[in-house]
Amino acid sequence: MSDTRADAAPVEEARRVHEPDPTAELFASRSVAEHLVRGVLGVVLAVAAFALAGRSSGLSLLLLAPAALLWRGCPTCWALGLVQTRARCASGCEVRKAR
After folding, report:
1. 60 within domain boundaries
2. What is the mean pLDDT of the chain?
3. Does residue 35 form part of some domain?
4. How far apart are alpha carbons 78 and 18 in whole angstroms?
5. Which pLDDT band holds residue 51 (cuts at 50, 70, 90)?
6. How many domains is the chain built from?
7. Which helix or strand (DSSP H or E) is residue 16 part of?
8. Is residue 70 part of a domain?
9. Residue 58 forms part of a structural domain
10. Element (H or E) spanning 63, and its range?
11. What are phi and psi of 4, to 5 degrees?
């Protein structure tokens, strides 16, 4: 008798190769330039929020919200998206998300 786990391993490996990476769908952009623009705008808003924190905490929070949206979370999420965008564009810039 053959081991069913050993027979299933190549099938599972082939299935994983063809499944899209969920982090690429969440964090990647259509192009590297678009991703860099989103990052720079997020940094500008975050710096402005911290600069105004002593004067107006409400305005600071209002500036941090769009920065988080531009980064799709936090700076680490943005960096992960940059890596995913570069990897996708290196393989032909195929965009599968509907944004």
Report:
1. yes
2. 80
3. yes
4. 25
5. very high
6. 1
7. helix 4-18
8. yes
9. yes
10. helix 57-71
11. -65, -30
- Contact between 63 and 46 under an 8 Å Cβ cutoff? The reply is yes
pLDDT for the residue numbered 76? 92
Cβ-count burial 56-73 (b if 16+ within 10 Å, e if not): eeeebeebbeebbebbbe
pLDDT in tens, 52-84: 998 988 899 999 999 999 999 999 999 999 998
Tokens of 6: 């050993």
Range of the domain at 86: 22-90
Tokens at 26, concatenated = 């969440």
Q: What pLDDT is attached to residue 98? A: 41
Residue type, 28: A
Please report where in the chains the tokens 């500008």 appear, as a residue.
44
Tell me the residue type at 93: C
DSSP-assigned letter for residue 21: P
